Amino acid sequence: MTGRSFTRRGFLGLSAAAVGVGLAACTGAAPSGSAGGGGASGSGSGSKTLRVFTYEDNTTVGLLRDLTKKFDEQNGTTTTVDSLPGSGAAVYPDKLKTELLGGKGPDIWRIWGGELGHPFVKAKQAADLTQYYSKFGWDSKINTQAISGMTFDGVKAGVPFLASGIAGWYNRALFKKAGISAPPKSYAELEAMNDKILAAGVTPLATAGKYGWHIMRLFEYLLETSAGPDLHDKLLVGQETWDRPEVVSAFTNFKKWQDKKWIPEGALGLDPSDVEPWYVQGKAAYTITGQWTEPTAIQAAGKKSADFGVFPFPTGQNPVRHSGFVEGYMLNAKSGNPDMAAALIDFLVSPDSQKSMKYGNSAVTGAEPDKAKLPLSSEWTQGAGKQPFYTIQDQAFPKQQADQYFAIQSNVLQGSVTPADAAKQMQQSISAWAKSKG
């Protein structure tokens, strides 16, 4: 299976059981050994200056800088870490692309798998890491399925370190206030739960529309519920038309969530980095996010994990899937010192480094969430997180189609486009992409 077919099709049904635990194990990328000066920040062969570009949250970027400082002390290097937090797929890839085209790109960058990472390989901006996989033994240290998620057209162009599943993370006290004794087991129960929470004077779902990607998680869940796994997978790769009743139903329910005030008022203009923690702050009952929220939202606020919970969004489908994705590091094909940059990647994906970053979703063997320190992440990984997942929508699509979707979802919520017209517009966008890729 090629990297392309995996990330577009095979990865759609990837089991998060493999993601949650470590396993023993157009070719666009330029050979990393051929890199020699030019573009990257560490220009000149053997440069001791490295630069990492990431989108780490403000609560974790300091931990990353501590790690690179430790690496510098051990290797005589000077590493700069630049971060663009919160912007997600709507902004970060374009910023990275601009830097690379301008000849001043980073030596290492963090990126998502699928169609967000693929363009950098096709453009020969990301190095082929095959030799470094062999040198550092990454195949036996990192989840095999996650590696496949960052392999493109047979080229290992990324080193995954995170594998995430999207779920409902909730505030137990607010559930109790609304008279809710347990998370919903069906979509009908979820809607009824929302009404109870709203009646208790609390916003049900903490989501936000700025940049598009966070509120997208709600729509893709609604699409999984209405379309079911097989059709949903085919829609994501352009094998079935979007101009159909199941998609119209998903957009109709999407608008319903706003009209019923189950999401924050004015959600489209709100920043997800501000709104997602509302469930921790007591401003909303739950949010739709991944395992990173336990250390970065719950524990960072000095709260106890025991006061919160996690549940899979019920779809009424078999199997009950959730949205998922991988993230990893790529190496600039023009890095001034690819060997040192690869060594830094190896350092960052070591179990000790992953643990120090407090990730609850590491794909590295030996860095799985510690039940004593991250009980909810551990619960998810060993429980509902073992179910298969579909590729998160803004990773399944190329950047252009993802941006077009963001515009369509915004127009639906603003009432300028009907759900039926939104389905037609999505078909126009996705069919154009499907034709272009043959």
Helix count? 21
Structural class: alpha/beta
- List unreliable stretches of 5+ residues: 1-45
Q: Per CATH, what is the topology of the largest domain?
A: D-Maltodextrin-Binding Protein, domain 2
Fraction of residues in helices?
40-55%
- Which second-level CATH architecture of the largest domain applies? 3-Layer(aba) Sandwich
CATH class of the largest domain: Alpha Beta
Largest sheet: 6 strands, mixed
Strand content: 5-15%
The total beta strand count reads 14
The mean pLDDT is 89
Tally of discrete structural domains? 2
Rg from alpha-carbon coordinates = 21 Å
The coarse silhouette is globular
Q: First CA to last CA: what distance?
A: 17 Å
Description:
The protein is of the alpha/beta class and 438 residues long. It has two domains: 229 residues, 3-Layer(aba) Sandwich (D-Maltodextrin-Binding Protein, domain 2); 157 residues, Periplasmic binding protein-like II (D-Maltodextrin-Binding Protein, domain 2), CATH 3.40.190. Helices cover 45% and strands 15% of the residues. The strands form four sheets. Strands 2, 3, 4, 8, 13 and 14 form a six-stranded mixed sheet that branches. It has a four-stranded mixed sheet with strand order 10-11-9-12. Helix 11 runs antiparallel to helix 12. It is globular, with a radius of gyration of 21 Å. The N terminus is likely disordered.
Short description:
By secondary structure, this protein is of the alpha/beta class. 45% of the residues lie in helices and 15% in strands.
